[in-house]
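Our working data are protein records whose layout never changes between entries. Getting from the letters to the tokens is the skill we practise here. To make this concrete, we reproduce a full record directly below:
***
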Amino acid sequence: MTTMTREARSEELASLWPAVRSAHLMGTQREFAAFHEAGAWRVRVSDRGDVIVLEAWRDRGDVLAIRALCAPAARIAGLVDQAATIAASRGYRRVMSPLIQEGAAAPYRRCGMGDLEGLVAFTVAAGGVARGRTPRAHPPEAATPTDVEALERIDVECFGAFWRHGPEEFGRMLATDHVRVVRDDAGVAVGYAASTLLGSTVSVSKLAVIPGARRRGVATALLCDADRWALRCGALGISLCTQESNYAGRTAYEAAGFRTDAHRYLLLVRDV
């Protein structure tokens, strides 16, 4: 047996789905099949049962992200090396680790990966988001493809270039996720949130409110909307994560009823 990986075949996807589901990457097996069909090179397996799932990080980035790596710790460094080789062959300049607990970072560091960002995870039981504040803004409404430009503008105001989504990514998000937007009295979008159902948990993958509209209950309204959607979906809980340096966001999440995960999480990166 070898630890070299190859593209997964369509008939193997059903057996790979439990690993992908456990990594909280996608909500359904159908979504995983569509992901594979759009680029089979991104789903890789070895004869030993190791699994790597790769995806470009953001529309305009130069980073190939390892979205999931399922293998014993002793084989992780070699698999990251393979991912780096694939990244270089496709014109990427860096390869990024999956989101990992700090205590599991050693195998990634052994193959030359360095810390990129520390993140904090939050969770709350479905139905547990605080609803004590009435936002001084219009209630969240469904975002549509006509909102892509507005969502891009919000991202520019709220995030550094590394974290921003591009128009294609927003288009995919609107097609697959629960995306809600809050507008001001003039109808201008001032905040949005995107949520995905992953198994029994709703993951809030993005939440942003422009600086001029903060402290008005917009973020709370978006979190409450995600909470109501979680209940309608039959989810047991809601999760999200943010950068350690995002103190304002962390305070808002705790005020809304979320609790901090006991573990510290990391993204690591290396040049290829």
User: Anything to note?
Assistant: The mean pLDDT is 92. Residues 73-89 form the longest helix (17 residues). The radius of gyration is 19 Å. The CA atoms of residues 139 and 182 lie 6 Å apart.
